[in-house]
């Protein structure tokens, strides 16, 4: 009897001891890419959410547009030299914004209607969906590309409600 009790005690103690060595497993997913490019895009600029706030229909009727909302794309670690020495150094870059659009305005989804989104550069160049913007000179180091968003009335009836839009951008280097 003592023998059985000892084994039972041993098994119970072993189970308790082993449970302290058990652990939970988790997974870390990592992704990235190695590319030849003149600049990297700062992580805070990759997937941005710009809160446009509330706007009254009366302001849209009166002004035909909202106030501008600023946003930036931060380029970091820009280097003009290319890794392949037979190719010329990077000199210029262009930006293209694209998404669902109606004419020159990016469309919105949701209950609200009667307007679209216009993007312009800080110096006033209007962005046309899917069209390459003016070429800009590339410099070593970091650089902020500053833009403005605003809502512009279109030919549809103004309807109140929530809205959202998805606009992509890409940078091309020359």
Automatic annotation (TrEMBL):
Q: Which domain of life is it from?
A: Bacteria
Gene Ontology biological process: cell adhesion involved in single-species biofilm formation
The record's subcellular locations are: Fimbrium
Q: Which SUPFAM superfamilies match?
A: Bacterial adhesins
Q: Which UniProt keywords apply?
A: Fimbrium, Signal
The UniProt record lists the Fimbrial-type adhesion domain at 28-154
Q: Does the keyword Signal apply?
A: yes
Q: What is its main location?
A: other
Extent of the signal sequence: 1-24
State any GO CC term.
pilus
What PANTHER family does the record tag this protein with? FIMBRIAL SUBUNIT ELFA-RELATED, FIMBRIN-LIKE PROTEIN FIMI-RELATED
Family from the record: Belongs to the fimbrial protein family.
What is this protein's record name? PAP fimbrial minor pilin protein
